[in-house]
Amino acid sequence: MHKILCLNKISPVGTKRFGEAYTFSPEMQEPEGILVRSAAMHDMDLPEPLLAIARAGAGVNNIPVDKCTEKGIVVFNTPGANANAVKELVLCALLLTSRKIPASMDWVKTLKGQGDQVGKLVEKGKSQFAGPEIQGKALGVIGLGAIGILVANAAEALGMTVYGYDPFLSVEAAWRLSSSVKRAQSLDEIYASCDYITLHLPAVKDTKGMINAEAIGKMKDGARLLNFARGELCHSEALKEALESGKLSAYATDFPADCLIGLDNVCALPHLGASTPESEDNCAEMAVDQLKDYLENGNIKNSVNLPALSMAREPGTKRVCIIHQNLPNTIAVFAAACGKAGINIENMQSKSRGEYAYTILDISGDPPAGTFSSLDHVVKVRVIG
Predict the structure, then answer these.
(1) Does domain 83-268 match CATH 3.40.50.720?
(2) What residues pair up with 55 in beta bridges, in sequence order?
(3) What are phi and psi of 54, to 5 degrees?
(4) Is residue 166 within 8 Å of residue 143, measured between CB atoms?
């Protein structure tokens, strides 16, 4: 029986996919797998039997990924599962910031109690909330992953001129991107060309604080900025200064910052990007399926710390799954260990990612204890019958 610890409430649409061979609960002791959404895990003691953590969402900032890698624990996420939900909210924010809709709604509430005068007051005061249409305007999409591509394609369909920038655009992603989207050669081209800019990239060392005073200075006067990726991408004080001076007309974000809350031209939402039942169901399904496939077959898909590797099972074999350091001659060492133990390798695959690698061996016979775990540079070994 596979034991799964659920650190957050996970959609039953996902957990029902476990089947009878699994047991799961928020109190599970000594689990093989963990399902998590937003729970903080950095101070958590990782149990010895733990093999994998599946995050029902894209970001893994709440998971100690480096520590997991050192212990041979695979960390999965679910890229694309909430992409449509975020895309819809970004499109909503385009309109909210263009037409000053949040401020206008707040103003209407002040008319309560004016009786028959409400209609006249509305006509007199509505001009202060005028704003441009998005059709015909230029939108810059920085980051063309699962969400960025959906936003770019949808905005193009709404009549916007769309510029996309992503130096790491994959071939698969390029196939999904509308041919009408213009390829920007640099961030500076996005800043200089676009009336609206939307961010869809992770918060890593090279991107944190990328929207700072220097970047904002390169943007068109009156540009509108949308950030539904990560709050750390933007320097909040620089944004505040630009919004107060009029350099930026508006800022919409799913990550409120204290110094920006209350500004009339800021539309700050409480991290609602993936807060739809459909998104939660999709994330739960993907997380459970990836966790099961690894526990049962050793296959890895959508891991943030180890390479993607899937191999069909050879009938009548045992499967050996080895997480190890990425060093020369390692495969030859594994083959030699099999030969010494009188074990035949029926099929094998190996891939690396940075300092670590993952190897799957389908073998005939039972490997003696320590055949692989005693080898240098091996992090974790398990045998699946």
Answers:
(1) yes
(2) 36
(3) -115, 115
(4) yes
Residue 68, token pair as written in the block: 């997991």
Estimate the share of the chain in helix, then strand, then coil, as percent rounded to the nearest 5: 30, 25, 45
- Give the β-pairing of 22-25 and 266-268: unpaired
Any idea where the domains of the chain sit in the sequence? 1-82+277-305, 83-268, 307-385
Q: 145: buried, middle or exposed (CB in 10 Å: 19+, 13-18, 0-12)?
A: buried
3-state secondary structure (DSSP) of residue 6 = strand
pLDDT of residue 337: 95
The contacts of residue 105 (CB under 8 Å, 6+ apart) are none
246, burial (CB in 10 Å: exposed 0-12, middle 13-18, buried 19+):
exposed
- DSSP annotation of 232 reads G
Q: How far is CA 28 from the centre of its chain?
A: 26
Contact (Cβ atoms closer than 8 angstroms) between residue 166 and residue 190: no
CA angle centred on 182, ends 181 and 185, rounded to 5°: 140
Token digits of residue 357: 């690698």
Q: How confident is the model at residue 274 (pLDDT cuts 50, 70, 90)?
A: confident
pLDDT in tens, 86-120: 999 999 999 999 999 999 999 999 999 999 999 99
Fold of 1-82+277-305: Rossmann fold (3.40.50)
* Residue 88, Cβ density class (10 Å: 0-12 exposed, 13-18 middle, ≥19 buried): middle
Task: State pTM to two decimals.
Answer: 0.81
* pLDDT tens-digit readout, 355-384: 999 999 999 988 998 999 999 999 999 999
**Under a CB-based contact definition with an 8 Å cutoff, are residues 372 and 63 in contact?**
no
Q: CA 223, 86, 65 angle in degrees (round to 5)?
A: 105
Q: Give me the DSSP letters along 303-328.
A: BSSS--B--PPPTT-EEEEEEEE--T
Closest alpha carbon to 304 in 144, 79, 85: 79
CATH number of the domain located at residue range(s) 307-385 in this protein: 3.30.70.260
Tokens of 39: 């729970």
Give yes or no on whether 83-268 and 307-385 have one common fold.
Answer: no
